[in-house]
Prior knowledge:
Structural class: alpha+beta
Number of strands: 10
Radius of gyration: 22 Å
CATH topology of the domain at 78-266: Transposase Inhibitor Protein From Tn5, Chain A, domain 1
Oligomer: single chain
CATH architecture of the domain at 78-266: Alpha-Beta Complex
CATH class of the domain at 78-266: Alpha Beta
Strand content: 15-25%
Largest sheet: 10 strands, mixed
Shape: globular
Strand order of the largest sheet: 3-2-1-4-5-10-9-8-6-7
Order of helices and strands: HHHHHEEEHEHEEEHEEEHHHHHH
Amino acid sequence: xxxxxxxxxxxxxxxxxxxxxxxxxxxxxxxxxxxxxxxxxxxxxxxxxxxxxxxxxxxxxxxxxxxxxxxxxxxxxxxxxxxxxxxxxxxxxxxxxxxxxxxxxxxxxxxxxxxxxxxxxxxxxxxxxxxxxxxxxxxxxxxxxxxxxxxxxxxxxxxxxxxxxxxxxxxxxxxxxxxxxxxxxxxxxxxxxxxxxxxxxxxxxxxxxxxxxxxxxxxxxxxxxxxxxxxxxxxxxxxxxxxxxxxxxxxxxxxxxxxxxxxxxxxxxxxxxxxxxxxxxxxxxxxxxxxxxxxxxxxxxxxxxxxxxxxxxxxxxxxxxxxxxxxxxxxxxxxxxxxxxxxxxxxxxxxxxxxxxxxxxxxxxxxxxxx
Length: 371
């Protein structure tokens, strides 16, 4: 528990800097929960509670403490994550870069659905805003709109945005909203979406993709409504299904391939659900409590990823130093490095634990970014 207390002290310092008006009791409790999450890497509230450095020997009291935190209405996920999200969006927009956002949903069995907007950071993503709903149904535009508008409010003025989303998201309302905000988009469509390419009878996106390797269609009307977009269709060899991508620009192969930026969200979900925090094992039955548990995980993830990125940039291993001088991707050192690479999340997690083991100062949990 000493390691959890040490971690929590640094988390509390960062939270106080990020949220000077947040109640001290909330800061202290949230910091302890983040420290326990980094130490235990589990969504199991019993296991997390057992790691908390509380002045009680009774396990039931520890569990009650954690349950109260997850039920606390003062712990609003969007409010707590805001300064961290704003920092990441500022960083993503530096040097006039386009901010790459992803909208995706993941499920915890048939019990809970989680919708999340994330921002690309290197070859991965970090969570910005999320919403949980009980059940496994797709969360439609009524659920998408609040978190998209939350991210919109956090964006630096004048930045360019490209949103990617998977097949079950596109709707007339989503297209209308994206056009109104001036965001670029790459939205993958299912094959059953009604489409009117303007030169014949109404058909479906699947029929338009039938039997073609590449096809590019400007000014296609979707959903039997007034929604107009451009379609790019690409069916690469070895892939069971084509990519049918709706986009805001002239459809080209390169524009279709922009959709691949969405895959940065997969390492993030892997850290949430697999190698990181095992979110799928959560037994929480209420959406609001799950959202607060994800907040705890997200804060831990931000710290680990930032620490891992800093470690990779400033403290490269001897093999990484040697490979930096190599320009040939087929060279043995480059291939060996690729096999040995770990994610920034894993690298940061290991670095934090080395600091604890060797009684070294922990990296800062929070630092303000400037435009």
